[in-house]
Amino acid sequence: MKLFDSHAHYYDERFSEETEGGADAILSALFSENVGWIVNVGTSNENAAECINQAAKYKNMYAAVGIHPSDCRHYSDVDYEIDRLRRILDDKEEKKIVALGEIGLDYHYEGTDKAKQMAFFERQLSLAEELDLPVIIHDREAHGDCFDTVCRHPNVRGVFHSYSGSAEMALELVKRGWYISFSGVLTFKNAHKVKEVAAILPEDRILIETDCPYLAPHPHRGEMNHSGLMSFTLAELADIRCVSEEKMAEFTAKNAAKFFGITL
Ligand SMILES: [Zn+2]
Fold this sequence. Notes:
- The protein has about 260 residues and is of the alpha/beta class.
- Helix content is about 40%, strand content about 15%.
- It is built from ten helices and eight strands.
- It binds zinc ion.
- Zinc ion binds near residues 41 and 211.
């Protein structure tokens, strides 16, 4: 049984700070165990290169690059940064770039510049359409605006990562060809809404992820997360949907491969 981690951040400093041998030691071990495939997701024009370089080292590791809504606060010129991102996306096949992300809206922190986040989000959705790349959406406490924005780009398809919206919105997204991804949050006891969504979605639109080093599943909540801990999320999902873990692993991997255009 091999698992497909559709969303991870292995260039994060936490891996080198908290583990001997850093991300490389972890990744070599994971790929020899039950982790089959990983998409390493960037959050800025600055970490894109490291994200791509890591993916180049492992046969079944891929990259996504984009500007996260929380990272755009460091940028002042949208045109300039979108131009940089466009250059990063040159030769995307050779760089194993399989998606544009993570992009979106994050209204969690007070004093957020919503207009700036929206400008970066809109421009990157247009870029994804132009380059025919799927997108990875980060939606934190911005469900309505995220939904409305992706609906303004009907030719773009993507995934809402670590989904936290309503069941109604999930079904509307699925109807429009979108995917929904579940992280370790699914295993938290109080995650009733997320569990409800996981129960009702069609099988062919579900992905799983770690978002590591963040969002470690129960009973490792709060620890440094890695793809090996995704088995807890998989077990929870299988339990909610009353299917075997093997079956769940098989179709989430198949869905991810189709979504990212990867041959397993
Ligand atoms: Zn992430």
